[in-house]
Design a protein that fits this description.
CATH superfamily: Metal-dependent hydrolases
Largest sheet: 3 strands, parallel
Helix content: 25-40%
Strand order of the largest sheet: 1-2-3
Order of helices and strands: HHEHHEHEHHEE
Strand content: 5-15%
Mean pLDDT: 79
Oligomer: single chain
Low-confidence stretches: 151-174, 189-193
Length: 193
Amino acid sequence: MIGVSGRNPIELMMAFGSMAAGGVLERHPRLRCAFLEGTCGWLPWYLWRLDEAWEKFGPGSEVQISKLPSEYFFAQCYVATDADEKPLRQVVEAIGDDNIVVSTDYPHSDGLFPVAIEEFVRLEGVERQDQGEDPVGQLRAALQPGVGPSRSDEDRRPAREQPSPGRPPPAGPWPRVDEEGVEETRPERGGGT
């Protein structure tokens, strides 16, 4: 029981933390990620915790990023809520709903299919919104490169101080320009086919 309740959310936390603090989302700004199968109740706390840790320890980290980890989440990521996830209302109050998708958990034995959506709209604070005839197509479109959640970085999140002036510049995407103004290209990766 402990493994079932903790494994997936903890794995999602570690995956997102690694992608954000490790610079993957910064190097690939068009990348869209969905963190599924682990509910969403953990997300507001974890985003706060990552931001707090980055503000304290990020300047000394080997990998430098130019934004707070939560900013990468809001710009490039989605998380799934289970159709019967009671803490969803608190999550939406904390971070908004632009980055949340609903999981029916089909065909897993613990899923609510075929009544998952009916259960979801009965959750406290959930209002049914007409999202058109093709919600899967809408999610697919939202996950396309160059498209992301609709709100700006400033919406629905507390204001934060700007990074300290002594913070080194981010590793950033390729190509880069060195100190002499010469453009560097991404090094070739080794390996076979």
